[in-house]
Amino acid sequence: MSDVLISAGDASGDVHAAELVLALRALRPDTRCFGLGGTHLERAGTEILVSQSDVAVGGMIEVLSAVPRVFAAWRRLEAAARARKPALAVLVDAPDLHIPLARRLKRAGVPILYYVSPQVWAWRTGRIAKIARRVDRMAVIFPFEVGVYAGSGLRADFVGHPLVDPLRAVRERTDRGAARAALGVSPGQLLVLLLPGSRHNELRYGLPLQLESAARLRALLPEVVVAVAVAPSLRRAEVDAVLAQQTLPVTVVEGHTHEAMIAADAAIAKPGTASLELALLGCPHVAAGRANPLSVAIVRRMVRVPSMLLPNLIAGAPIVPEFLQEQARPERIASALAELLRGPAGALQKSRFEVVSQRLGAGGAAQHAAEIACEMIDGGGAR
Q1: What angle do CA 232, 235, 236 make, to 5 degrees?
Q2: C-alpha–C-alpha distance, residues 306 and 353, integer Å
Q3: Is residue 383 part of a domain?
Q4: CA–CA distances in Å: residue 62 to residues 55, 58, 287, 292
Q5: CA 246 to CA 283: how far, in whole Å?
Q6: What would the mean pLDDT of 250-277 be, rounded to a whole number?
Q7: Separation CA 255–CA 360 (nearest Å)
Q8: Residue 349 above 60 pLDDT?
């Protein structure tokens, strides 16, 4: 029997980590997993020692308020690693949480597989050497990331993108008409889905902006109805508190975000994984978001890519409109959404999403990552 420590610090990482756990336990049924995560990891049979909601915060400045909780998470996971002596630790994305945790786990003598590489190719390239010192093997989800670690001494394997398989399954099992009916969308109405993010500060900054943009859109297109998807890492009460401050009728979606993406005619997403999910599910959308101005100023000095959106980076073209920070004006966002809903922009964007899908591979990311984990558990396949 092998114990594996697994840690996923945000909502998307929780999904990817759960798929890996299921694949790993299919290969090695005696594997016991424990660590940090959310509802998906728990449903996959992982013993949750630290709740993901305790560390779900983002931003260069906002994270300071979560420092005590993050330190407590590190201490608890390190203590569990020393007590249980797992054969492997799997860290999923969330570099601000996991790169320091990797140092603690390395100190405890635990081999480390990092699944879903930090986006060091976009910014903070100085982290590559630090990651190489602390991590034994890297499973990357974009083909070009293999070259990022060339010469660092850290072996990196392209395993495919973890969204490909689950989203293909969602598309196959979801009837769009039934999904729209479940949300109360009648024929002739246009459903716009709001995706404000999975972290507490993203909700605070992003949801009011998205709600105001949706209200402006309804002034242009009265047939629009609005839904907001609540990430598992957020508490419903937080969303309700924001919704109570405005009069726009909004349907709240919990636990069926991907089905809502299929049901939607268009969406507003915070830059991040949600944009890629929308692209793979064929939902036209714009990206809009605001953050702490000081956080943004710091990031802008460090970022090295022409877009903050993965669909745009993968396609090599600005296929999804971006409205960030000072550009995030509700009237501009509403106008872009109206074009997607009533003009040719929506069909054009959907056709370009096919390019994104093709470049992410045929699937099998969780299976490939689980096979690497098995190699490492058996004592091989590290550097």
Answers
A1: 100
A2: 18
A3: no
A4: 12, 6, 21, 8
A5: 26
A6: 95
A7: 25
A8: yes
Same domain assignment for residues 69 and 195: no
Query: In which order are the strands placed within the sheet that holds 190-195?
Result: 250-254, 224-230, 190-195, 266-269, 285-289, 322-324
pTM: 0.77
- Give the tokens for residue 219: 């002034």
Q: Indicate which CATH number applies to the domain containing 282.
A: 3.40.50.2000
Contact 86, 4 (CB under 8 A): yes
Whether 302 has a pLDDT exceeding 80, the answer reads: no
Contact in structure between 86 and 100 (CB atoms under 8 Å) = no
What's the rounded mean pLDDT across residues 158-173? 93
Separation of alpha carbons 124 and 145, rounded Å: 14
Q: Are residues 143 and 113 in the same domain?
A: yes
Q: Please state the φ and ψ torsions of residue 247, each to the nearest 5 degrees.
A: -110, 0
- Write out the two tokens for 176: 């769009």
Question: Can you state the percent helix, strand and coil of the chain, rounding each to 5?
Answer: 50, 15, 35
d(CA 20, CA 326): 39
Domain that holds residue 290: 166-359
Residue 205 has pLDDT above 90, yes or no: no
Distance in angstroms (rounded) separating the CA atoms of residues 215 and 266? 14
Number of domains into which the chain is organized: 2
Q: Give me the DSSP letters along 74-110.
A: HHHHHHHHHHH--SEEEEES-HHHHHHHHHHHHHTT-
* Dihedral sign of CA atoms 296, 300, 306, 311 in order: negative
Report the Cα 96 to chain-centroid distance in Å: 14
Q: What is the pLDDT of residues 217-239, one digit of tens each?
A: 999 999 999 999 998 878 899 89
Which residues, 6+ apart, have CB-to-CB distance to 177 below 8 Å? none
Yes or no: say if 88 and 111 are a contact pair by the CB < 8 Å rule: yes
For residues 348 and 295, the answer to whether their CB atoms sit within 8 Å is no
Please name the amino acid found at residue 195. Answer: L
- Name the β-bridge partners of 293: none
